[in-house]
Design goal:
The complex is a heterodimer of chains A (about 110) and B (about 160). With about 110 residues, chain A is of the alpha+beta class. Chain A is built from 5 helices and 6 strands, in the order H-H-E-H-E-H-E-E-E-E-H. The two termini of chain A are about 20 Å apart. By secondary structure, chain B is an alpha+beta fold. Chain B has a single domain, classed as Glutaredoxin (3-Layer(aba) Sandwich), CATH 3.40.30.10. In chain B, strands 2-1-5-4-3-8-9 form a 7-stranded mixed β-sheet. The chains are: A alpha+beta (about 110), B alpha+beta (about 160). At the A-B interface, helix 3 of A face strand 1 and helix 4 of B.
């Protein structure tokens, strides 16, 4: 999250209209998290509370061992005209491909 | 649904600790010799809960303790990270133990699940409170959908 916040101007500079963060949490939690992270309207904080989107993306993750239930894998994507142009899915536990810095390189 | 006189079912809840989430079993929470007030909410950071439910238990905490209660716990189908952040936000501090039932296992075992998928909340917990002594449910106050009366700290206090 802080990575996308720090790089928001550079990302926008590449012609990106919207930067959105999606998580299997509800809108109340996403709103509170956005406040805490001071996203300040720069990042659209979106909840997928029923995991419908994440299931449709086929990117769910069984985190019940850690008391998290069914969640989303960590990934980033670049979408243009509703079509996925780039998809960066992390290996379990990794945080490389989906970082703002890496996404920026591919814009 | 569980009823008065039943033993609290087995499940593992999670609390946010300094080192991250830590498991809290119901056997540990509702151990023999302990008197516990537990209340459950549909979701952290949701309006009714934030505005009334948790603050009620925080402000009535001393009176509840004075009735011989060892622990006051708040349970929600949220993860320990969310419960920890919400506890901070609500200044629940050392008073109310904020417990995540992230898999909904405890809530299902209690028979008190609620389908919140119409609101993008997935499966959650009904709003309720209970008084547990030696692991046995002594009083159970389950709210009607949308209501906030019987599970309030003030009402629980009257039954202690």
């Amino acid at each position: 999250m802080p990575g996308f916040l720090a790089n928001i101007d550079a990302i926008k500079g590449k012609g990106v209209d919207t930067v959105a963060c999606i998580s299997v949490n509800d809108a109340f939690v996403m709103g509170a998290w956005g406040k805490e992270q001071k996203t300040d309207g720069k990042i659209l904080m979106l909840a997928d509370g029923n995991a419908e989107f994440t299931k449709a993306m086929d990117l769910t993750l069984d985190a019940s061992r850690n008391g998290l239930g069914t969640r989303s894998q960590r990934y980033a994507m670049v979408v243009k005209d509703g079509k996925i142009e780039q998809l960066f899915v992390e290996k379990p536990g990794a945080f490389e491909a989906s970082t703002a810095e890496n996404v920026l390189k591919h814009l | 649904m569980v009823k008065v006189g039943d033993k609290v079912p087995h499940a593992t809840l999670r609390a946010m600790g300094a080192e991250g989430p830590k498991p809290v079993s119901t056997e540990e929470l509702f151990a023999p010799g302990k008197k516990v007030v537990a209340f459950a909410v549909p979701g952290a950071f949701t309006p009714t809960c934030s505005a009334k439910h948790v603050p009620g238990f925080v402000s009535e905490f001393d009176k509840i303790k004075a009735k011989g209660v060892d622990t006051v716990a708040c349970i929600s189908v949220n993860d320990a990270f969310v419960m920890g952040a919400w506890g901070k936000d609500q200044k629940a501090g050392e008073k109310v133990m904020m417990l995540g039932d992230g898999n909904g296992e405890f809530t299902q075992a209690m028979g008190l699940s609620m389908d919140g998928s119409k609101f993008g909340l997935g499966t959650r917990s009904q709003r309720y409170a209970m008084i547990v002594q030696d692991g046995v449910i002594k009083d159970l106050f389950v709210e009607k959908p949308g209501a906030f009366e019987v599970s309030a700290a003030e009402n629980v206090l009257k039954h202690l």
